[in-house]
Specification:
Elements lengths: L1 E5 L10 H12 L2 E4 L11 H4 L1 H17 L5 E3 L2 H16 L1 H11 L12 E3 H7 L19 E4 L19 H8 L18 H4 L1 H17 L4 E4 L2 H9 L11 E3 H8 L23
Helix pairs in contact: 1-11, 3-4, 3-5, 4-5, 6-7
């Protein structure tokens, strides 16, 4: 199964995200073909600075994906996902905006007739789970590990169309397929502070504490997330504030471990709070 892949700017530097995405997709039979010559989508800040330039950035990505024959764009970052979904809705509903973007694209001999649909890799795995090559056998993670999912706030913003947006459960359902036990908690879509953690670390540490304390109270021992910034904020945000810290891993790392992939292939050594007592695989 082949998908057009937009990695986004934070992907390469994220703590084991690339390694785990590569290994897990190879195991499940998913081929992510990177969009050639992709550019930054502008993240969520671009639209607050200049809407035309923000749409030109995203419009270029749509045009490149369409020219390279991709029916949809898959990303692994909540900010990229939210930005592209917002742009797709605006460009798809306003011919004037689309015309303005095409004027900007003309210099590169690019043209956009309509935005390309956007999906998070989590959505793709959930939607196509019955078509994927799930390995047989029991879950390889110890039974005492209780996974708490954390989606962040951008996946379920009004621009998106995620099932059960107030209480998403895509990860829970995928983890159940892999034999993992998840815990129910109320912090799965609370904001971690996003990029404000750089400028306002003190205030954002309060947000992180609220999320981590709720997960601990409900018995979670491992946090699974789907966004580079969410992972970093929850991981480093516990430094100096907790005696017992919770490891924060990507959903691809957690799924990979459960399905028997070796920890060395999943980039787990890059986590700031280590994930202990994991079988070598």
């Amino acid at each position: 199964m082949i998908y057009g892949f937009f990695p986004g700017c934070a992907y390469q530097a994220a703590a084991g995200y690339k390694e785990s995405v590569d290994s897990l997709c190879n195991l499940l039979g998913i081929e992510l073909r990177e969009i050639e010559d992709w550019n930054c989508c502008g993240a969520t800040a671009a639209f607050s600075c200049d809407r035309h330039k923000a749409l030109a950035l995203t419009g270029r990505l749509f045009a490149l994906a369409a020219r390279q024959g991709f029916d949809e764009i898959v990303t692994v970052c909540n900010a990229c996902y939210s930005t592209l979904k917002k742009a797709a809705k605006l460009l798809g509903s306003d011919p004037g905006l689309l015309e303005n973007v095409n004027r900007s694209l003309k210099a590169e001999s690019l043209e956009l007739s309509a935005p390309v649909p956007v999906k998070h890799l989590l959505e793709v795995m959930f939607r196509d789970r019955e078509k994927l090559s799930w390995p047989e056998g029991p879950c390889r993670l110890p039974k005492d590990i209780k996974v708490a999912t954390y989606y962040g706030c951008q996946l379920t913003r009004p621009w998106q169309n995620v099932p059960r947006a107030l209480r998403p459960d895509l990860m829970e359902q995928l983890f159940t397929v892999a034999g993992l036990e998840t815990v129910d908690h109320s912090a799965r879509t609370l904001c971690c502070g996003a990029s404000h953690a750089v400028a306002y670390p003190g205030q954002c540490r309060v947000l992180v504490s609220r999320i981590v304390n709720e997960i601990k109270a409900k018995g979670g021992t491992l946090v699974a997330t789907i966004c580079p910034l969410c992972q970093f904020n929850l991981d480093q945000g516990q430094h100096g504030s907790y005696r017992a810290k919770l490891p924060v891993a990507y959903f691809t790392q957690v799924l990979g471990l459960a399905l028997g992939l070796p920890p060395a292939e999943l980039g787990l050594k890059k986590l700031l709070v280590p994930l202990k007592n994991i079988p070598a695989g």
